[in-house]
Each structure stands twice: as structure tokens, then as C-alpha cells.
């Protein structure tokens, strides 16, 4: 991530790569609610809130209350966020190409391994697996 942030700084863009996934989701799907972001990305609500707060602090997104549900915040890109998209897209495209090249040279298929792990966790959560392990009788 540090390398990505260095490139962003080098072109004079005040953007942290940690924000990218949520920023792109808002750009493509906005207006979008906080819980929808958490569900679609499979990350916790507090993690989404943390990134959203940073994006708002940097004037990259705006938040409005839903007309249907006043408790729900709907997020969209601000004018500043919209203006930043054309600067970010070429870098993101380059990041994707570099990652694909690096993954293509791997002797082990990392993405397949991650998908297998995710499938196992979907069958039985990690917490449950740990509980089973802790509850097994001790053998000497």
C-alpha cells in the first residue's frame, strides 16, 4: 500500500489507497447506504464508518439522510470526489495490470487458495472452528 500511496502523492493527489474500495463502490453505486457497503464488501460496519469519516473529512463524499428511513445515511461522491476520479483511474488501471502480472508469475495460485479458504469459512465460521478445537479432549 505504501507504494500506491507514494504514486498518489507523486501526482499531487491527496488520497489514501485504503479508501479505494469504498470510494469506487460509492462512485459506481451511489447513493449507497453504510450497511449496504459493509454487506457488499464483507467488512464490518465500524470499518466502513472509519473510512467514510476520512472520506468526508477530505471532502470526497457527501452524506444525506434517506427520505425513506431517516436513520439511514446515503453516500455519494462530492464535487471534489468526482473531480478526482479521472486522476485516480489511470493509476488504478496500472495497479490492476501490475497485480495481474505479478499473480501470473506465481508458482502457486494465491487467488484460488483464498477462494478455497473463503468457501471453507462459508461452510463453517472460523469462530466455530476455534471453539471446536478448544473443546476437544486433551490427549497426552
Q: Tally the helices: what do you get?
A: 7
Main beta-sheet strand count, sense and barrel state: 3 strands, antiparallel
Task: Give the strand content.
Answer: 5-15%
Mean pLDDT: 85
Helical fraction = 55-70%
Name the CATH class of the largest domain: Mainly Alpha
Principal-axes geometry comes out as flat
The CATH topology of the largest domain is Arc Repressor Mutant, subunit A
Oligomeric composition of the shown chains: single chain
Number of structural domains? 2
Radius of gyration: 19 Å
Protein name: HTH marR-type domain-containing protein
GO molecular function, one term: DNA-binding transcription factor activity
InterPro entries: ArsR-like_HTH, HTH_MarR-typ, MarR/SlyA-like, WH-like_DNA-bd_sf, WH_DNA-bd_sf
Domain HTH marR-type: 1-123
List the helices and strands and how they pair.
Layout: H1 2-10, H2 20-29, E1 32-33, H3 34-41, H4 45-57, E2 61-65, E3 73-77, H5 79-104, H6 110-123, H7 126-135
Antiparallel strand pairs: 1-3, 2-3
Please, could you describe this protein's structure?
The chain is 64% helix and 9% strand. By secondary structure, it is mainly alpha-helical. It folds into two domains: 2-104, Winged helix-like DNA-binding domain superfamily/Winged helix DNA-binding domain (Arc Repressor Mutant, subunit A); 108-135. The protein has a three-stranded antiparallel sheet with strand order 1-3-2. This is HTH marR-type domain-containing protein. Residues 1-123 form the HTH marR-type domain. GO terms for molecular function: DNA binding; DNA-binding transcription factor activity. Keywords: DNA-binding, Transcription, Transcription regulation.
Amino acid at each position: 500500500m505504501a507504494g500506491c500511496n507514494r504514486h498518489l502523492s507523486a501526482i499531487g493527489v491527496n488520497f489514501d489507497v485504503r479508501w479505494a474500495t469504498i470510494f469506487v463502490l460509492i462512485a459506481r453505486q451511489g447513493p449507497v447506504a453504510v450497511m449496504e457497503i459493509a454487506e457488499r464488501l464483507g467488512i464490518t460496519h465500524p470499518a466502513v464508518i472509519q473510512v467514510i469519516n476520512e472520506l468526508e473529512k477530505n471532502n470526497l463524499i457527501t452524506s444525506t439522510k434517506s427520505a425513506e428511513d431517516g436513520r439511514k445515511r446515503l453516500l455519494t461522491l462530492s464535487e471534489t470526489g468526482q473531480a478526482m476520479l479521472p486522476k485516480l483511474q489511470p493509476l488504478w488501471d496500472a495497479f490492476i495490470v501490475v497485480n495481474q502480472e505479478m499473480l501470473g508469475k506465481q508458482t502457486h495460485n494465491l487467488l484460488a487458495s483464498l477462494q478455497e479458504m473463503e468457501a471453507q469459512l462459508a461452510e463453517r465460521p472460523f469462530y466455530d472452528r476455534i471453539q471446536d478445537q478448544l473443546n476437544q479432549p486433551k490427549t497426552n
